[in-house]
Structures are given as C-alpha cells and as structure tokens.
Design goal:
The complex is a heterodimer of chains A (480) and B (122).
Chain A lengths: L14 H15 L17 H6 L18 E4 H9 L4 E2 L2 E7 L5 E7 L8 E2 L2 E2 L6 E5 L2 E2 L6 H11 L7 E7 L7 E6 L1 E2 L5 E9 L2 E8 L6 H15 L4 E5 L6 E2 H12 L1 H4 L3 E6 L18 E2 L22 E6 L6 H10 L4 E6 L7 E2 L3 E3 L2 E4 L3 E4 L11 E3 L8 E3 L1 E3 L14 H12 L49
Parallel strand pairs in A: 13-14, 14-18, 18-19, 19-26, 24-25
Antiparallel strand pairs in A: 1-22, 2-11, 3-4, 4-7, 5-6, 7-8, 7-9, 9-10, 12-13, 16-17, 16-23, 20-23, 21-22
Helix pairs in contact in A: 5-6, 6-8
Chain B lengths: L3 E10 L5 E15 L5 H15 L16 E4 L10 E2 L4 E7 L4 E5 L5 E3 L6 E2 L1
Parallel strand pairs in B: 1-7
Antiparallel strand pairs in B: 1-2, 2-5, 2-8, 3-5, 5-6, 6-7
Classes of the chains: A alpha+beta (480), B mainly beta (122).
Chain lengths: 480, 122
C-alpha cells in the first residue's frame, strides 16, 4: 500500500521492462513526443538515466530550453510532500538578493496573523524590505562555514512550532539595527494576503495581493476578495500576481470569470489543453475527451459548496503586477483574458513563461514529471514560453503587451499606492504613460550571486498549501 | 437542482463491498438531501465513494448534506511543482426513488445504494 493507503497498481517486472514502460509512456503522452530521439532502453543501466533522455532538446526563440522541467523523484517523497505535516514558520516570505557573502536577505511580505506581522512596541516585527542581518547571533551577511550555514538555516526555517529565534534586522531607510525575537507557529499562508480599496479622482480601484492558486482554500479566498471589491463598487482592478507561481487552473478560470463577467465570457473558453498530435481529441493521460475549460461561473466545491454563482466585477480591463515569479496558472489568467480581448495591462517585469503542465506519474516507486500539455486560450494561443512582458521592456524575447516595465520595490508595503508597481499601474490607468525608471535599474528580485563563499539557499516555495486531509485551513505551517 | 428519471442500472453494494448489478425499469429518481446528517452519515458517504472510485480514501469538499444534493470529492492536492494543475473535484449526487437513498456520479448512470441513512427528495 502507498502512503495514501492505496494498493500499488504495479506488477512485478524487470528493470528493463520499467525502461520500456517509460519509452511507451513518453511516446503516448509527452507533448513533444516526435522530437524525442528513440533510444534502446537496453542500452541504459538505470531508469532515471533513460528517463533523462526522453525529452526534446529544442530551444525557445530566446535560447532557453524548450523543456526545462523534466525530472523524477521517489514516489515516497512525492506523497510525503502531498501529505506532509505542516511546517513551522515565522510568517515572513524572504527574498534573496544575494545568497553568498555578503548576503542580502529581505522580507518580501508577511503573512497576516503571523509572528512576523505581530506588533511589538508599536512596530511590526518584520515588514516588507526589512533586511536580516543576524540570526541567533550568527552573522547572516558574512558567515562562511558550513556549521554557521546550518545554524542559520535552523534559525530561519524551524522544524517545529514553538521555536524562538532572535533576529537582528534593519528596516528600509533606517540607519540603525533592531533586535526582534519571534516564536514559530503553524500557519497556512493566505492565498489572498490582502485587499485594498484605493480612492482616486477617477473612481475606486481594487487591489488584491493573490499569492497562490494552489491550495483548495484559494477558491474561497479569491471569491471573498472579489466580493469585497464588488461591494465597494470598484471600477478597476490591480491584481498583484508578482509572487504567484500558479496552482489550480480551475481557480484561475474562476478568477478570470470574476474579472470579466458573464457577458464577456459567454460562449468562450478560458483554456484548452494541447496534447501531442497522436492524442487526437482525447486527453492521452486520463483517456477522457479533451474538452476546453470554460470560464467557470460557479463555485466548484474546492472550499465553497459547489454550484453557487460567482460574483463578477464585469471589467473591460485589468492591471496585473508581475515579476519573473509570476508563473503558470497566473500566466493562464493573463492569456485567458487576452483570449477574449479583454484589455490586460502588465506592470512590472517579464513573467516566467510556463504554458506547460503535466500529470505526475508513479511507476515502480518513482514519480515522473514529463510535460504533457500546453495551455492555450480561446484564440488557441499559448506560445509564451519566453514569458509575457510590458511593451516598453528592453528585453528582446517574450510576448509584448500593454504596460510598463518597473522594478520590484522593496521599500514600500504591498498595496501602498506609492509602491513602485502599484503606483505605475495607477498612473498607466489614468493616462497610459509609464514612470521614468532609473537607467539600468535591475529588478531587486534578481538574485545577485557573488563568486565565492557558501550559498544560503531558500527552500523551494511549496505550492501545496494544504495537507491531504483538507482540514482547512488551520493546520498549515511554513511559508518560506 | 434537476431531477432525473429513466432506465437506471443499479449497482447494489453490500456492506462487505461485494456488488451485484440489476436494472430497474423506469425508476423515477429525484435529487435528495439527508434530513439529519451526522458524522456517521458522512463516514458512510466517504466509504461508498471510496469504493466507487477505487481509492484508498477520499476527502469530501464543503457540503451541507441537509441542503445540498451535490457532493464534491477533492482531488489530491497539487504537488509543489504543479503550477498548471488541471485537478478538479469529482461530483456525486444524492438521489432517491422515494424509498431508498443512492449515490450517483455526475454524468453517469450507475447507482450505489446507501444503506442506513434516510434521504428525502429536495
């Protein structure tokens, strides 16, 4: 039995038969199956080595690998992550500007109701842009022994709730350091971190910081946020997806519907999955008919009782804030809305460029990830592997769209109308112009690597925000 | 919620999960709710759906069984690398022929009898 108490479906076979299975599975389901060089499984000694060659070697127009996501892991590891006990957290999302000495780690945002957001002596323990300098006495900026790195990781990412850690930090614009002690707790990251209603001379503008489509809780969270904006009669929306790496396509469809409304989406598809040509009209993985995904106009039963009509803002345009972390289902919102000719304006920097997806597949205790579909919109467009980017970007490759290239701004809170991306969106909304950017300014989100010293790596953001039991939403821990 | 009628292939499930098929002629089925749902009812539903799906266990989505006929069954949550996850709930309906209570997956005709709870047409 596997970790989910399901019997393994496998039949005992030889290692060679495993490799033959990989060959067949790739031929049947891999998106670019005709670009795979067929190689004899008998010439390989391991399944993972064989799987590694079962991919295309083509590149995108920018030179990026066309398939840059092809790997496998043990099924135990995959299921442990699906079912994992919540991780402890202080509730601060960290951004690494430099992972090697002199390191530069800043707070990207804090989670509501977290130790990081708690107020001590009239001041939030941590705020956006706060730089971490010392952790439990260890110099985070310059430490360079493995022992110190281990202590830093233990302090930053505690294994359990109830662990107290002392930080020396410096806030943006401050000239002196301060000391903060926090105790880790179990906390689910909020899909919608915050909403704002911004009064402007030309009407109310809604702002939503939406950080993940992944947990089932994201359905309820985004419906609540849109409801709040609708009650306040906003006439425009700034949707902040700058740190949203994606998740459930169904929720991205719901969000797109709630932006555009019934009339603009009637008879249109939000997305279609494009499989390899051999699949015909079927989804080669599930065997079901490959029907387009509509703009879902009702709740789907993830965390709201299914079948209730969704609220809608009925907007003709939207302003989306982006960085290179704006990925997958976030990009699907952009592409889906462009597919129905809704005006989508992009403020920030180029998105990551992931129109592809897959169904993780276990075989003999190994779970394989191979790209099986490309998401396309109602116009059958899905070629944005080099990302979406604002029209005035100096970047050569990518799909250009209206908007402004603006560097992420760690000096102001997200949702502050003076924060650079939001301010640019508000300006562009009024007169279609972009703010003047300092020449040569790079996104502060970019990791600047020095050439020597030990790196302190942030853990991979875990898109899975809930455990399998779905006892939502209280027992999630561990934002990074 | 619409009610459905027609020729229905019944799959009668016994507690032992042994199953037998039979066909009823022109059985009028209506969507149903459970007047007095409780934890036991929920467990029973989960067990029946688990057997239908063939999974080790299932997790129901949010549902008020006293009011709703449609029950969503959550998929496995997306893994950390699944940024474009097509995962969707599966949906089951509670239906009744006026005497017994059945589960039916949306879009399918097969029924599973629910021994125990009393349901009533909506």
């Amino acid at each position: 039995m596997d970790l989910n108490n399901r019997p393994f479906p496998d039949k005992a076979g030889t290692a060679l038969e495993e490799r033959f299975w990989l060959r067949s599975w790739t031929n049947e389901t891999y998106l670019w199956n005709t670009e795979v060089t067929d190689q004899n499984p008998a010439n390989f000694t391991s399944r993972t080595a064989y799987f590694a060659v079962l991919k295309t070697n083509a590149v995108t127009p920018s030179g990026k690998e066309k398939d840059d996501f092809h790997f496998s892991e043990s099924t135990v590891a995959y299921q442990q992550r699906q079912n994992s006990a919540p991780r402890a957290t202080f509730g601060a999302d960290l951004i690494a500007l430099s992972t090697r000495p002199p390191r530069d780690y800043r707070v990207g945002y804090t989670e509501p109701q977290s130790p990081a957001a708690a107020v001590t002596n009239g001041q939030a323990n941590l705020r956006r842009g706060t730089r971490l300098l010392r952790v439990n006495g260890i110099d985070l900026v310059n430490a360079n022994s493995q022992s110190e790195i281990d202590q830093l990781n233990a302090g930053l990412f505690p294994a359990t709730a109830g662990v107290s850690t002392t930080f020396v930090v410096r806030d943006p614009g401050a000239t002196s350091d301060r000391t903060v002690t926090m105790t880790s707790i179990s906390l689910s990251p909020s899909p919608v971190n915050r909403t704002r209603i911004i009064d402007t001379p030309t009407g109310k503008v809604g702002y939503i910081l939406f950080n993940t489509f992944s947990p089932f809780e994201s359905e309820r969270a985004i419906v609540q946020a849109i409801t709040e904006l609708r009650i306040n009669s906003v006439t425009d929306l700034v949707l902040d997806l700058r740190y949203n790496g994606g998740g459930l396509l169904a929720v991205s469809s719901q969000l797109a519907y709630m932006i555009a409304g019934a009339n603009r989406t009637a008879g249109k598809s939000f997305s279609k999955l494009r499989f390899n040509q051999g699949a015909g009209s079927l989804n080669p993985v599930t065997g079901a008919a490959n029907n387009p995904t509509p703009f879902y106009s009702q709740t789907l039963g993830f965390t709201l009782t299914s079948g209730t009509d969704l609220p809608a803002l009925n907007l003709s345009r939207v302003f989306i804030l982006s960085t290179a972390e704006t990925c997958s289902a976030s990009e699907a919102v952009i592409n889906g809305l462009r597919g129905i000719d809704l005006e989508v304006n992009l403020i920030g920097s180029k998105t990551c460029g992931k129109p592809f997806g897959f169904y993780p597949q276990d075989n003999c205790g190994e779970t394989y990830y191979t790209i099986q579909f490309q998401t396309t919109n109602d116009k059958s467009f899905g070629d944005y592997a080099d990302g979406f980017l604002p029209n005035n970007s100096s970047t050569q490759f990518g799909v250009r769209m209206p908007g402004c290239e603006v560097a992420d701004d760690l000096t102001r809170e997200l949702g502050d109308p003076n924060e650079a991306l939001l301010a640019a969106a508000l300006q562009f909304r009024v007169n279609g112009t972009c703010p003047v950017q300092p020449s040569g300014e790079a996104s502060s989100k970019m990791i600047r690597q020095s050439v020597s010293g030990l790196p302190l790596e942030l853990p991979t953001r875990d898109l899975m925000e809930t455990n399998y039991d779905m006892t939502m939403p209280s027992n999630r821990t561990g934002s990074r | 919620m619409r009610s459905r009628s027609g020729k229905i292939a019944l799959i009668l499930s016994l507690a032992s999960s042994a199953a037998a098929c039979q066909t009823t002629a022109d059985t009028a089925l209506k969507t149903a709710v459970l007047p007095e749902p409780n934890e036991q009812t929920r467990t029973l539903l989960e067990k029946a759906i688990t057997e239908i799906i063939g999974a080790g266990r299932v997790t129901l989505g949010p549902v008020d069984l006293a009011r709703d006929s449609l029950i969503s069954v959550l998929p496995a949550p997306p893994g950390p690398y699944e940024g474009n996850s097509p995962a969707m709930p599966r949906y089951f309906e509670l239906v009744t022929d006026g005497k017994s209570c059945f589960l039916r997956e949306r879009g399918k005709d097969e029924l599973r009898a629910l021994p125990g709870p009393t349901c009533r047409a909506r």
